[in-house]
Amino acid sequence: HYLSVDTYIWIIKHRFKSLNWMVWGSDLYQLPFIDNNVLLPRTKAFLESHQIVNLKRSRSFWYKLKYKIITPFVYSKIDGIGTWMAPEYDFAKSNLPFVLRDPKYLYFRYPLNFNWKEVKLKAGALRPLRHKNPLIVLGNSGTYTNNHLDAIEILKGLSCKISLPLSYGDSKYIEKLQILKKNDPKFTVLNKYLSFDEYMKFLIENDAVIINSLRPQAVGNIWLAMLVGKVIFINSENTLFGYLKSMGFDIYSTDDLINYEKCVTNFDPLVNVKQMEMNFSDAALDSTYLELFK
Length: 294
Known about the structure:
Elements: H1 8-13, E1 20-22, H2 26-29, H3 41-49, H4 61-75, E2 80-83, H5 86-95, E3 104-107, H6 116-123, E4 135-138, H7 148-154, E5 161-165, H8 171-181, E6 187-190, H9 196-205, E7 208-211, H10 219-227, E8 231-234, H11 239-247, E9 252-253, H12 260-266, H13 269-280, H14 282-292
Parallel strand pairs: 1-2, 2-3, 4-5, 4-7, 5-6, 7-8, 8-9
């Protein structure tokens, strides 16, 4: 679980009968040599113009030592990569220095951090909301990988209200983003943590959720939004989008936002709930763990 840079030395110092990495997310996608691939043009330009993050990472001696020598040695000790998405396994193999061995794919997923049956009960009848001016949740946090500005550009032609959850993330990015949208009545900023029940109520009151990241992110938020019947838009470059579509989930690409009304009309929330029950119930999780640890 969570292969952070802090664990590298520990891995180097020890021998293992078998060492398997259960991917969390940021321990794969936020590595320094991968970060630049997750930004869309407007967000990237915003970060650079406000000097929020240095996208041209240093190539100092210590950088080269850590990522050219130490990192390949660490990853070469890994026997298996656990993730619930085969494309994520492929991404890891393609981008990380597995030079001495070929790690195997292990189907693994973390438990949901909420009781999905309880969520369904609170959600009640799943009827997609059709506000005259749609209420849309954009992103899950104040991390710049949400590519907020690029999604906002797509939404320019839609008369809607946009909520920006910014309770955590990059503080400088959050500050600049709030200043940018401060006097725009189209936007509401959520800059404090909500309790689970408060977040549930917030989601239920909205029409749709947009995840514009280019890498898997906010998966827990997506599951919750599905269970309460929200229309989900995910960037098609995100491996999560294609994988969920292949599983039969009723989701849409951020490119489809230009045909928002058509998407809402065609959307069937029960499809997503049934897929959730089939793939992510407690029984399905038990079966996964029994197979993994037998």
